[in-house]
Task: structure prediction
Amino acid sequence: MKNIFILTFAFLITACGTSTKEEVITEGINANENLVTLSDAQLKSAGLVLGKLEEKALSSVIITNGTIDVPPQNMISVSIPLGGYLKSTKLLPGLQIRKGEVIAVMEDQQYIQLQQDYLTTKARLAFSKSEFERQKELNASKASSDKVFQQIQMEYNTQRISLSSLDQKLRMININPGSISESNISRTIQVYSPINGFVSKVNVNIGKFVNPSDVLFELIDPSSIHLNLKIFEKDLNKLSLGQKLVAYTNNQPDKKYAGEISLISRDLSSERTAEVHCHFENADKSLAPGMYMNAEIEVKSNKTLAIAEEAIVNFEGIGYVFVQKTTKEFEMVPVETGTSENGFIEVINKDKFNGKQIVIKGAYTLLMALKNKSEE
Result:
């Protein structure tokens, strides 16, 4: 291995109790580039501390981010089934609204026509009903033919169907059919808010004609806002429903919002991430849909074999530990690590180190000596 460090460690050794001298640790290095051998004096001066893998209950934190979102049932697009002209509205984006509140008034001649058709059909139905009852009595006494009775019955049923259909059309535009008479036909209709919430978008202006497919306003009910997080594929198996988390915004990192995971998607995006939905325990009005948030998810503690973090040395992007081969020989062995907590780190390839003595303190001294030798 090529060494990027150029360091020399000298150990001061007292000889015969009267003098000292420098002894360079690299003098005792074995030809094996991953093996370092120390003399008695070097071993004493290095101050190495040995230890073994220990069973620890380690928990980790997944740090991620996402945005405030609302479920589809809490996002309302307001449109008019029959279309019409917008006569008046007071809505502005961000305005708070109450359920049942008038949010717009629409005007169109087709509203007049629909009410006229309803009243006309209602009058025809009344006539058809009386004629049906009269023909029914005549037919019972054989004073009229069955054909005439059947024609009257068909007309009566047709008028009933027409009136029922017009009744539903009127209700779709918020007109109560029972309140209509020839003296109070209206050319306007009122549009009511279906939710408590606030206005997200206003897509129309006064005097504009809108079609039935056009969206006038978009409303949001914030009572069920949730946090939509992006979780990488490698972390998905660490999550479970009901798992706790805390979230915070960039503007107020000290203000924490507690929550828990309510839904874990298994549909991965092209970035190899999945959506994880979380509910807040106590959300407030400062949290708005689309707002960016950070989150910390605590992963459940698991018992695993771990080593002190200071035992790990890094060289050229790879982690190593020094394993004692003999009293004075130490071999540098690659180590795979996982979760870390409270100064300990999980060892994934633990089978390589079970029962072996590992250098806990002084590992970097051995690394520098080993790499200095390889540079010679």
